[in-house]
Amino acid sequence: MTRAKKPDLLRDNELIYGRLLAIDEPHLIQRYNKALVAFGLEPTKLKSFQIDRTGFSPEVAEERGDYDYLDPNEVNRRFIILTPSQIDLPVVHTAFSNTSQLMFEFMSKNQRAIDALTIKDVIYGEIEDSVPKVSDIEDLLSINQVEFKVLSAEDVLGKAAELGKLVDRLKQEPDAWRDNAMLERMVDLAKVCGDIRENALVPDQVIFRHNAYWTSHFGGLYVFVDPDMTTVISDPAAPGFRRSRPWQVSYLSINDTDKVFRFLAGTGRLELPRASWIEASGYLEHRAEMVVRALLRDAEPNRNLTDVDKVWLQTWIHGHADLIASDGNFPFLNAAKREIAQFGHLKIEDVAPRQRFLVVRGRPDHPDAWLTNQLISDFVPQDFVSRYVFNKPGFYKDFDGFSDAWRSHVVDVLKTTYLKDKAAFRARLYGLTD
């Protein structure tokens, strides 16, 4: 799928394609091109570009006019590793939310091999799973694990494996040392691979579990995995929805707010509104401010919002009391804050389904906390900050539809809140420490 170039406003403020690694050394560009050619792609003519953890480059994508050049069918994702330092980079373009984690696990488990290989070579390959193309939900559910198919442009991997076999033969066959041709071959291979007894050149672990994730397929689809049941949350129009395996797979419409909430709460993925975290986090105050800003956007989409602050917003609220009351979310959040202050918690069963997601967050100690917060953000689109933190595909889609004035305002808010100290912001509002 070819994608349009994102607005420069996001790039200029490092809200898209930020923290990438600059590649401008000729030998690294040459190695990158060797990987592209191995994938059957034209080499880049760029003298400088940036890459993410997977080796994806927005500049190369724009040069090619194809943002999916490393993800041709949005499955079996390709990767290019030029340096071990890619492990610290984000993943900025992917069809699966867990691509970043899978790459991190692969690079962590095989750090020694990657360190040694990238001294002399480029590592490339595919994160291969059981399907070549996704046609319906069942194709997605058949992916239980992925295998990293790893290659290197100069075949250092293959040569290391060959040298290993020759070393074994030399040890096991009494007369092998008389084979001059074999010994010469070992010397040639060692010139490329070095001492394989010291340098681990072959990755130790290449198979990893494919657990809970979001995917861009079928307009956006979530898969949550529990011991006895896999739960799919998507648009019911997605091909394969409720078609098979009801004893193993539960299908929930993303349009059914009540059922989605009950699933997340029932499986322990939500932190319900209690004073223990609500009062210290400022979570309800943040949600209330986001609700008001969204109402302001809808009422006056072209207003210059450069000087908007909390005092100005409070004045705007008083001047638009009818609009605030008819929407209902701002009064609800104020009432929720009072109830929690008085009783220590909010009776969630008394809250209308459409407002429940305003007062909860992903349970921070649950392994699916980030994915849960992403799903919550789909039900609270007014909170563009949470959308940006957890749901960048959704945020960028929203951003494309904003007016110029609102785009500038959104960027200003993100720069003065989240971007000032991301870790501290996530810890305070969402209880996340990494």
Distance between the termini: 32 Å
Question: How many separate domains?
Answer: 2
Residues in helices, as a percent range = 40-55%
E-strand count: 12
* Strand residues, percent: 5-15%
Any idea what the shape is? Answer: elongated
SS field, number of helical segments: 20
**How many whole angstroms does the radius of gyration measure?**
26 Å
Sketch the major β-sheet: 4 strands, antiparallel
Which regions have little confidence, pLDDT < 50, spanning 5+ residues?
Answer: none
Averaged pLDDT, please? 90
- Which structural class matches the secondary elements? alpha+beta
Sequence of strands across the biggest β-sheet:
3-4-5-6
Question: How would you describe this protein?
Answer:
InterPro entries: DUF6638. Pfam families: DUF6638 (PF20343). This protein folds into 2 domains: 8-135 and 146-154, no CATH class; 256-430, no CATH class. A 4-stranded antiparallel sheet has the order 3-4-5-6. A 4-stranded mixed sheet has the order 7-8-9-10, covered by helices on one side. A two-stranded antiparallel sheet has the order 1-2. It has 434 residues and is of the alpha+beta class. It has 20 helices and 12 strands. Helix content is 46%, strand content 11%. The mean pLDDT is 90. The protein has helices spanning 8-12, 26-38, 58-64, 99-109, 111-120, 137-141, 156-172, 180-193, 257-266, 275-281, 283-299, 310-319, 321-327, 329-343, 353-356, 369-379, 384-390, 392-400, 404-416, 422-430; strands at 21-23, 49-51, 78-81, 123-128, 145-152, 207-209, 213-215, 221-225, 230-234, 249-253, 270-271, 361-362.
